[in-house]
What does this fold into?
Amino acid sequence: MKTSGGSDAMKRRAGESAAETVDDGDVVGLGTGSTAAHAIRAIGARVDGGLDVRGVATSFASRELAVEAGIPLRDLDEVTGPDAGGIDVAIDGADRVALGDGVADRVRGTDRVVGDLIKGGGGAHAREKLVDSAADRFVVVADPSKETEILDRPVPVEVLPSARGVVADAVRAAGGEATLRRAERKDGPVVTDNGNLLLDCEFGEIPDPEALATTLATTPGVLEHGLFVGLADEIHVGTAEGVRILET
Ligand SMILES: O=C(CO)[C@H](O)[C@H](O)COP(=O)(O)O
It folds into this structure.
């Protein structure tokens, strides 16, 4: 499982805290990345102790880890649709978590945080978004290095291989710069679990993630982008002292 920096102890605290919110009988979305991996291991330990859950993996890597941890798995299409029970909770990591100033426009008048995310550092954001948005409750696990006032990192965009140039042109027209993600241990690009390519799209600060999300989502050739706007319900931030739980 790839790790993206930050303290592993803090990530573990966040993952274990989120795993504690899973109830007996739940269908659980299992996120991707080193922080979500801690949650998967902690859920596995609870399954060993008798917890009855079904997991829905968001990537090849999270499936592999869930099998190792002894979590029974279901396919997404087995648990969603008119006659299925759905996903009770999804637990997933993030590359950036926008907290705003605590009273951002969308939640002004409350003490809740914004909670918009950039995901896709592991290139799994297409399936992550499917699972996380289908869940009744989406719990984000992070360490403090992910927190920011305004989203400010490149947005991963999964594209059909032949659409690479078309999407890069559209990103440029929207004020950004697209860079093909290259593999570290092979010559050539990273290929996603879905057989597509990834463009990391630099826009600088993103003051209006909702507008950019609409632009990217409506660009032909884009399979999915890594802006998760208005999806997170809770954010568990592992710290040196313990865990901070924020609500959106
Ligand atoms: O979005 C993701 C994968 O596509 C990950 O959740 C994100 O990159 C965070 O990873 P980590 O917990 O290793 O920092």
In short: The longest strand covers residues 135-142. The chain is about 30% helix and 25% strand.
